[in-house]
């Protein structure tokens, strides 16, 4: 239940500009989750969500900015738990996720700013990552698989 709820939170903040915990609680309720403010507060802390300027004078929740060195991979456990399969062919990595979580995973990959990654395209449950060459695709696939196995 907790994992599904946290996946729903990631989906909501990727689709909407959520400014308050109350707004997040309302959106979760619309998705079928009845939660308390304390539960949402814990989920926000565990997901390491941050508030950033919304550009309209307010703030919105987002995944935390990556503070690791350029090209390194850092994902929250919830993001990693949403990945079902990773494989590659030539210079293309294909990542399958649980439904509705491809965008947050792709956002985490994009935030790496890796010079080997040319770009990501995310659907509902599939991500295509285009890399510079076959070696980069294999390296990224191997890193993701190792991270998933934990």
Characterize the structure shown:
The protein is α+β, with helices and mostly antiparallel strands and 150 residues long. Helix content is 43%, strand content 22%. The chain is built from 6 helices and 6 strands; from the N terminus they run αααββαββαββα. The strands form 2 sheets. It has a 4-stranded antiparallel β-sheet. A two-stranded antiparallel sheet has the order 1-2. The chain starts with a helix and ends with a helix. Residues 66-73 have low confidence and may be disordered.
What's the topology here?
Elements: H1 2-15, H2 21-30, H3 37-47, E1 50-53, E2 59-62, H4 77-81, E3 83-89, E4 92-97, H5 102-110, E5 117-122, E6 126-131, H6 134-149
Antiparallel strand pairs: 1-2, 3-4, 4-6, 5-6
Oligomer: single chain
State which percent range the strand residues make up: 15-25%
Rounded to an integer, what's the Rg over CA atoms?
16 Å
* Helix-residue proportion: 40-55%
Strand order of the largest sheet: 3-4-6-5
Please tell me what the overall shape is: elongated
First CA to last CA: what distance?
21 Å
Q: Quickly give the structural class.
A: alpha+beta
Per DSSP, the total helix count is 6
Largest sheet: 4 strands, antiparallel
Average per-residue pLDDT, rounded, comes to 84
Low-pLDDT residue spans: 66-73
What is the β-strand count? 6
SSE series = HHHEEHEEHEEH
Observed structural traits:
150 residues; alpha+beta; two-stranded antiparallel ribbon
